[in-house]
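yo

u said u wanted the structure for the complex thing, so here. seqs first:
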Amino acid sequence: MPSVVIHNVRELRERYEKVLVVGEGAYGRVLKATERITKEIVALKSIPLCSGDKEGFPISTIREINQLKTFNHNNVLSLRYLLLVSDTKEGWATCSRSEAYLVFDYVPHDLTGIISDPGILMNEASIKSYMQQLLTAVVHVHSFGSMHCDIKSSNVLVKYDGTVKLADFGLARFKNPNPNVTYCNNVVTRWYRPPELLLGDNKYNEKIDVWAVGCILAEFMDRRPIYPGSDEKDMCARIFSMMGVPTNSTWNNVEGLKLYRVMTSGIAKGPSLRDHFASFRGFVVVDLLEALLQIDPNKRISAEQALRHPWFSQAPEPSKSALKLPTESRNESWVKKQFAEQEKRRMQSHQQQMLRNGNRKRSIDTLNASQPPPKKQQKITNTVRYNGHTITNTIH
Amino acid sequence: MKDTKNITPRLALSQIERTRSREDGVDAITEKSMRIFGCHLIQDAGIALKLPQLVMARAQIILHRIYQKLSLREHDIIYGSMSALLLSSKLEEDAKQLYNLIDAFRSLSYFPKDFVDVHNMAMREHILRTERTALVELGFNLHNMELPHAYIFFYLHILEGNDILAQKAW
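structre next:
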């Protein structure tokens, strides 16, 4: 298979059928399509190539392609080829309205969908298997001196047979051997962002991925995100109320971080991590969780150490196929659709109730017949629910 | 941790000699001197931009790889070296603005006055086109680039060479 395929728009229609948009985000769109000849289902991730681009081919895409070509692991979603599309005869390089796509295998499920589908019953063997596969992928990525920087449950894809594929290297980058190099602080989706990033550190290391993996494990146990903060301050409040506010004695030089003073003021002590997972008391998994969600990155275990944790060698043994996955895809967009439908139903029932109330009231008092519907409030909850998934895609 | 996927590709001598420029009627000596000129441009512009040496070394490798596949008649060596430096600065996470890059080339003494103009949109367009063409021709394979400088150290160590020899080889 050649690494680059060039087509014009007409040829594109001949090559693929049943093209659907399955995801949309700050990066662009993800399309699902079936290849006409091989009948294979692929996912196409569009690359924003605006006609007025002043800086040439986007650096983030060069970064992503570089990473994807370096990795070669069963649990990392691999790049099949690049698809370059232009709509004129001039060719891809010279046409200003040309497009580019990264072509991947289509993977139906992701962990957001699996965790939030009430129809799927989790068992320990499958959670163990998913975590093990995810950690081996992270170890592979880290072994090349790279950081994923955007691990979250919707970026961990799951095939029908239970194989985990780590996806979306749009923010990933190679670590510079020079320890004084600073990186962009604004990475990782908020709910999975570790405390060192929230406190404004820009000399972080690959431990940020380990924190995100810990968040996913907690999400498995709780079946909801552990720190769904509405903003950075709220994130800090949630994390530090559970773990305690770090000081220089518990985390070397933490008070020197840029946002330390702002973020750690006025935090009330809440239930600790062990109290939060009181129903798992006595299980080894809480040990692992505590090691992964260690606020000091220097004390947090590495992905490799996490893989050697006794939880993985304990009974029940990790098993890929312990969980029966549905045939329809359970992914982030499915969750969003589900959520929107729920909201719609609630609105409808609310309106009906309002109507009934209004009729009754109107007969009594026509002046203040109906209360203003709490439309605004619902909108707010909606944005809060999905704020965790919005992130700026520009890093330098 | 290295697997076959990440080994730097190597070409046979016959492949190296059969470049696109040669097919286009550019003789070997001209091509060689053109490439050397491109490398000089990259080195001097890189110094003007205060880029680390690694970026320039990588840009020179990209330049040689590009002209393995592209013809010097179609793609001017100036645009080629500019886009090679642009690509390599992106790769090394030290991306410079295109404006500054062109400005650095303008400040070099190789060109007549006002030959390179920052505000020349056609020139920007040319550079971006060359960049894209280069990416396609390289198949976006920018991940497997080994610097030849490492070999110099390797052989120096074997030959027990001294600093003078090392400086010369560089």
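The interface with chain B takes residues 2-4, 6, 53-57, 59, 62, 65-67, 69-70, 72, 82, 84, 92-94, 143-144, 173-174, 176, 396 of chain A (CB under 8 Å). The CA atoms of residues 145 and 175 of chain A lie 6 Å apart.
cya
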